Every structure is written in structure tokens, then in C-alpha cells.
Amino acid sequence: MAGTGPRRVTFRLRRFEPGTDREPRWEEHRVEVSPGMTVLDGLWKVKELHAPSLAWRSSCRMGICGSCGMLINGRPRLACNTQVAELGGDVVTVAALPNFGTVKDLVPDLGSMFETHRDLMPYLLRDDPAEQDDPTREYRQTPGELERYLQFSYCIKCGCCMAACPTVATDPHYAGPMPLGQAQRYNSDSRDGGFRRRRETLSGGGGPWRCHFAGECSQVCPKGVDPAKAIQLMKRDLVVDLLRLRRRRPPAPVADEPHGTPREGIAAPPPRTATAEG
Amino acid sequence: MESRARPNRLGVLGWVGGGRWGFERYLYTLHRLTGLGLVAYFVMHIFVTSARALGPESWEQAMDVVSGPLFAVGEYLVFAAFAFHAVNGIRLALIELGFAVGRPIEPVYPYATSVGRQRRLARAALMVAAVIALWGGLDFFVLA
Ligand code: SF4
Ligand code: SF4
Ligand code: FES
Q1: The pTM is what?
Q2: Model confidence over A33-54: pLDDT tens digits?
Q3: CATH number of A111-242: 1.10.3210.10, 1.10.132.30, 1.10.1060.10, 1.20.120.520?
Q4: Pocket test for ligand 3, best of A62, A82, A83, A220 (most atoms within 8 A of CB)
Q5: Which of A192, A247, B27, B28 is least crowded, fewest Cβ atoms below 10 Å from its Cβ?
């Protein structure tokens, strides 16, 4: 049989250098693909052989850090989690995630997303700061209570959902699926008491009611977080709260002191981080 | 130049740019377009019927303008838009109250999403809207 040689594909890349380029330009490079090669591996090859100044963001190479979200063949995906073979065809088109500014080439400016995320207080809000700063025991939580938010806690903040959402595409005031999904993650945590504060933060507009369940965020999420579900559950909680039907429960207290069998393994609490006072 | 001030936002293209992922994006787009269409019709309707306040001649004139076959088709499109918007709106309201999207689950690959879970509801809503639109078509064009 005539040798077909190794398979080659064309990487079609959107290049953009702020301050130098007025508009983005497209560049093509052919590289050899090997079995199991990911789009991220392909980018490294392009950088090594053809375009040393090509910029993108990546770190873990295993779908954990959330750095490498890109628009790959028209769909927001993680470059490290997408094999060239699964895309089919001979051209792999890669651009920075849309609906964000571009820092350079394939690097989106996720700053605005993280600002909104921070505004929605993605951490446990409670009124026992002493216990939070210096925990004596764990907060009590049943497996059932854990399941109410566990799915949403798998979010790696890659921004793929924001790039896919048609509301984010036209509405600069919409908070977007990632920050809202994470607000709901904490709202539905039995250890949290911040529902009202987050509701007030969202009441200025830009909140969940701008979402009309196009569902694209959940379709593209590489971690199965389903932010569209989180947002609909947030809306339900808001309606139930408005009707004064929401069960008011204080955040879960610390677990009871164990009795009977003494705890083994931890003789003393770990040393505190050194402070300025020493 | 792209910057935070002028980001790489997809704009209205983002409303139609999907589709390889799920047809709910098209329902989303259609819901917006039919909503805008209904608002435009509403404004026109108020404008036309307000001719009555100017006396019977103005009213007759206005009725002459809107009685052509083109307007009959236009009115039918408004009715079809209403059928879709109303039924899809009920689907959205149910979903926004947490129905049909399911509870949080352990994400195990291949991931099941709330979008897939409500798909039967979406199909049913489309069918009901189609039946209402067809029935309206009969009423507009055949039985009228
Ligand atoms: S919800 Fe999914 S797509 Fe969105 S940021 Fe989190 S992991 Fe990424
Ligand atoms: S479900 Fe809501 S947040 Fe998700 S893509 Fe659609 S409009 Fe955006
Ligand atoms: S490099 Fe970390 S998620 Fe892709």
C-alpha cells in the first residue's frame, strides 16, 4: 500500500496583539498529528515550529485549572481536554473566547467575569467570624445537604459558558452563567447564610432574570456543572422567598463534640499562619 | 482595537451562532423576535384603532388600508407569533420555577444537563404552539 505518511492538519489561529494590530488576523500552520494529541499539544507544536510569539493561557493540561478555554471550531472548549481527532476534518480553527476582551492572541481577558464573581461573594457568609478564622470543629452537613450544591462546586472558572451564552453576547450588564452559578452554589450550601446579601447585590439588574434558558452554558461546560440549572434554581428560590415561603434556617452550626471514642490523629490543631505580630 | 472597552462580544450573531449544541438557543432567539414582533404589532394596533377617535371617515380609511391580503397574512403571522410566544413563555415560566430541570446531580461523563432533561417539555410546547397556529390558519384562511 502506498505510504500515506503521518496525518497533518492545519491550525487556523486568530492572532491579535493589542497596541500593534488594529484588527485580528488569521494565520495558518500545518502540523503533524499523533494519536491522542490534544489541541493544546498542537498549539505547542505550532509555537515550537512556526510561531514562537503565539500566546495562550494553560497550566495543568488535565482539565483542572480552567486556563485553556478557547473557541475551537466554533465551540467554547478546553484546549487540553479536546483531542484533534475528535474534531474531525483537516482544519482546527482556534480563537480567543468571545464575549471577553482579548489580552493577546488566544488569551481572553477574564477580568470582568472575576469581578462579578467576587461581587457575588463566592464564599461562606456567616455571623461567626471567630469560628471561621479559628475553627474549633467542622460545620455539620449531611450527605443530602452536600448534594444540593456539589455539582455546582465542580466549576473551574474557565469562562466557556460565558462565551456560549447568547445573553452575555448582547447584554453587557448580565452577570453571566459562571458568577450566577457560583452564587447559587453558596446559596444552596447549608453552612451559608448569605442568600439575602447576594440577592441584594443582584437586585440592581444583571441578575438571573436576564437568563432565558438558551441552555448553551450547560451544553458547553466541560465539567458538567450545568450553570443553566443553577440559575433556574436561583430564580425559584427568589420567587419562593418573595412569597415568604422560604424556610429560614440559620447556617449549620459546628458539629457536636465527639463523645465516646476520642478523636485520633490530630492531637493539637495545626499551627496558625504567622502574622505580622509574630 | 479590542480592549475591555470594546470587547470581542458576539452581539446579535451570538443569538443565532449556536445550534450545534442544542435547539433551545433557537427557541430563545425566536422568543425574542416574536416578542419584539408582538410589541411592534401592539403599537401599530393602537395607532390604527385610534383613527376611530378622529371620526368615522378616518376609521373607514384606516380599515381600507389594513384590509388587503398582505395584512391578512401579516395578522396571521402575528397570531402564529403569539401562539409560539405564549406557549414557550409557559415552558420558560415552569422552568424558572425549577420544574423540569431536575435536581443537582453528580456530574459523571457523559454529562446529563438540565437542557436535555427539559427537552420533552420543549418538544411538547412546540407541538402545542404548532397545533394552535394551524388551527388559527384554518380559521383565518379557510373558515373565514
Ligand atoms: S460553569 Fe462550566 S463552563 Fe462555566 S466557568 Fe464553570 S466550568 Fe467553565
Ligand atoms: S441558560 Fe441562561 S446563562 Fe445559560 S446560556 Fe442560556 S441565557 Fe445564558
Ligand atoms: S490547561 Fe488546565 S484546564 Fe486546560
Answers
A1: 0.91
A2: 999 999 999 999 999 999 999 9
A3: 1.10.1060.10
A4: A62
A5: A247
